[in-house]
Design a protein that fits this description.
418 residues, alpha+beta, UDP-n-acetylglucosamine1-carboxyvinyl-transferase, Chain, 2 domains, 4-stranded mixed beta sheet, 13 helices
């Protein structure tokens, strides 16, 4: 267990480089199981979710080596399903991404239900439905499930929801299925597009990336590629909010503006003074911020993972902001912690919060309930008067690499205490 101790009130200034995307890294790591050849992935963030995914690969007998500061080389030639570390699978939600590759490679996979952040109920039904349409037979028993398929066969699949991880599992499994798979209502997020790019560089035949209709023509074999992960749009949005509320001037490097359109639009709606270049985002000082309305939606809508950081932005905006997040019923847990710090916020129901500002925040001892809430409370601590202590700090390490060191490089005053 660790905690962050933050001395608030310092404006952030300087340059910071965005990390590779967590939500692109996890499915791409799982996808290396689809080939016996060596895969080289660069711009990989050194965060606990990535480390755990790599540990699961190692438990299967795959070779995993850091061959650069943020480059990992993986060879799953000797992977064996019998060696799977079920305890590691159960400890993290992202391990659900191994379902498709393991099924495609080993024809049978038995794993416990994955764990993860307590942000709401996320049953794997859409994964089972999608893989079942490819020919998998699913058996559930005592908190675990078994999937079997002698051979996967392409099919027309209409997903019952825009599930990112179910789309990714389907892409990986269908790449080695017999015949054509057509997926309607597929997720189109940038990290889904990055997985498609990775699979196609392995020799898969996938079209439609960036849309909600995907065509996958199965192939017999995939090879080992080199691939560079896209920058993390969620980290970029988090850093942008931190810079905006601190009143400083921060340039975020290594961005893809096309992935940030709705995020930038909402920042501008809130009165944030920003400049967008080909591969950078500069946040400039502005005294007046205004209330906004926000609803999370599947891409290209506003990402649910940035709802909480924009909640702390709303505390500094003139007027009343309404934020709606229909996906997860546990996403509003951070609001109670902001209220302890002085925010004027009311949780209307599990999916809506009303925040009126601007309100000064005061340092308190608070708790990080989940990954994105943890990052949000760090932002709150940066602008609060006095000292803020955030318990369960290690939760933030799941998605942000050395966040305290990097923010301290911009002038923040954050200390990690183990």
């Amino acid at each position: 267990m660790s905690k962050f101790v933050i001395q608030g009130g310092a404006p952030l200034r300087g340059k910071i480089r965005a990390s590779g995307m967590k939500n692109a890294a996890t499915p791409i790591i799982a996808a290396t199981l689809l080939t016996s050849e060596e895969c080289v992935i660069s711009n990989v963030p050194k965060i606990s979710d990535v480390i755990r995914m790599l540990d699961i690969l190692k438990s299967l007998g795959a070779s995993v080596e850091w061959t650069g500061d943020h480059e990992v080389t993986i060879c799953a030639k000797d992977a064996d399903i019998k060696l799977l570390d079920e305890k590691a699978v159960k400890s993290m939600r992202s391990s659900i991404l191994f379902l498709g590759p393991l099924l495609a490679r080993f024809k049978k996979v038995a794993i416990p239900e994955p764990g993860g952040c307590i942000i709401g109920n996320r049953p794997p039904d859409t994964h089972f439905y999608a893989l079942g349409k490819l020919g998998a037979k699913i058996t559930r028993k005592d908190g675990s499930f078994t999937l079997e398929a002698e051979g996967l066969t392409g099919s027309l699949i209409i997903l019952p929801e825009f599930s990112v991880t179910a789309t990714e599992n389907l892409l990986m499994a269908a790449s080695l299925a017999k015949g054509r798979t057509e997926v309607h209502l597929a997720a189109a997020e940038p990290h889904v597009q990055d997985l498609i790019k990775f699979l196609n560089s392995m020799g898969a035949k996938i079209s439609g990336g960036g849309t909600h209709t995907l065509i996958i023509d199965g192939v017999e074999k995939l090879s080992g590629p080199r691939h560079t992960l896209i920058p993390d749009q969620i980290e970029i949005g988090t850093l942008a909010v931190a810079a905006a509320v601190s009143g400083g001037e921060v340039t975020i490097e290594n961005i893809i503006p096309a992935h940030l359109e709705i995020i930038l639009l909402k920042l501008q709606e809130a009165g944030v003074n920003l400049e967008v270049g080909k591969d950078y985002l500069k946040i400039k000082p502005r005294k007046f911020l205004r209330a906004f309305r926000l609803q999370t939606l599947p891409y290209p809508g506003f990402p649910t993972d940035l709802q909480a950081p924009f909640g702390v932005l709303a505390t500094q905006c003139q007027g009343t902001t309404l934020i709606q997040d229909p996906l997860f019923e546990g996403r509003m847990g951070y609001v109670g912690e902001l209220v302890k710090m002085g925010a004027n916020a009311i949780v209307a129901d599990p999916h809506r919060v009303v925040i009126t500002g601007p309100t000064p925040l005061q340092g308190q001892e608070i708790k990080s309930f989940d990954l994105r809430a943890g990052a949000t409370l760090i932002i709150a601590g940066l602008i609060a008067s006095g000292e803020t202590i955030i318990n369960e700090a290690q939760v933030v390490d799941r998605g942000y690499e050395k966040i305290e060191e990097r923010l301290n490089g911009l002038g923040a005053k954050i200390k990690r205490v183990e």
